[in-house]
Amino acid sequence: MPRISTEDAGRWLNNVPDEYVFRCRDGKVFKNMQELEQALVNMTDESFAFHVDDHHNDFHNWVRDIIKDEKLARDLAKSRSRSQATVSVSRRLAFLRDRLQ
After folding, report:
1. Distance CA 63, CA 68 (A)
2. CA of 25: how far to CAs of 14, 50, 99, in Å?
3. Domain locations in the chain?
4. Of 31, 60, 85, 93, whose CB neighbour count within 10 A is largest?
C-alpha cells in the first residue's frame, strides 16, 4: 500500500474550488469529503440512485476527477448502495484524519 503524505491527506480533506462543488439532485451542495459523507447519510435512496446506477457514478467521478483521491474513487465505484458509499467515505475520512495527527 502506498504511503499517504500528510500533504496529500490535507489536500484531499480541503474544500474544492467553488466552480467544482458537487451539486446534488436534492439541492444540497458539497465542497469536501466531510460534506459528501453528511450528504450520503442524509440523502434519500432515490437521490442516491439518480447519481449512481449501472451506467454512471457521479460520486466516484467527482472524487476521482476533482478531489483526486484514487483509493476512495475506486471504493465508490464498487458501491451500489447509499450505505456502502457512506461506509467507504467514512472509513477514508477516518484514515486521512489519522494521517494528519
Report:
1. 6
2. 23, 7, 32
3. 6-99
4. 85
